[in-house]
Amino acid sequence: MYNNLKLxxxxxxxxxxxxxxxxxxxxxxxxxxxxxxxxxxGSARVKIGNTEVIVGVKTEIGTPYPDKPGEGTIMVGAxxxxxxxxxxxxxxxxxxxxxxxRVIDRGLRxxxxxxxxxxxxxxxxxxxxxxxDICTVNDEGNLFDASSxxxxxxxxxxxxxxxxxxxxxxKKKSEKKLELKEEPLSVTxxxxxxxxxxxxxxxxxxxxxxxxxxxxxxxxxxCALQKGGDSALTEEDIDAMIDLSIKKTQExxxxx
Length: 256
What we know:
Elements: H1 2-14, E1 30-34, E2 42-48, E3 51-62, E4 73-79, H2 95-110, E5 120-122, E6 126-138, H3 143-157, E7 159-163, E8 168-177, E9 185-192, E10 195-198, H4 202-205, E11 210-216, E12 222-228, H5 235-253
Parallel strand pairs: 4-6
Antiparallel strand pairs: 1-2, 2-3, 3-6, 5-6, 7-8, 9-10, 9-11, 11-12
């Protein structure tokens, strides 16, 4: 049964047609909503087809790392809720959740999306920590792209809370926004058989041989890569997948 269904999917992809009528390189319908949470300093909801992800950005004041006394930092976490997919379980973060969080973190960090020095309150003593929390509402495939888009949208929506130098008033937002130097987005390209696919559904993800997540800035500069799947990729595969990913990130930016 498994092999027959995979063969059927591959035959369809060879004709550049998928079960839902899309071409191999097409995303499903995408919507982005800003400011969906009153309690977060920045928030966004992204829907790609029936996949839905919410990201909230909260702030804390902490002590800087000893080797970077004048810089704050970000911390990305992902919660894959059982209500969004029956395969997800409550408890400690799964390998899938850890990978998702790290992919989003790496894209933001390695692109130098923000100057961590702007998060310094008092060098060596106090800095802002940005806690970026990803929460899945419904998983029907392609959480990587949905989470990347939602994380960037939430950061664009962010205002620092009111702060008098000593205490934070989380009930009030200041006029100070987070300044972004770059706006990294990632698109994951999946290989099924010999064809490259973006934005797979759950049904398609089961049969993926390999995947490559590529995070890029607005000018197409690559800032992070993450390979997944059991099958190896050739140099030609990687070049083709990177080209397709960067092309599709430009399309995703229109939704911001």
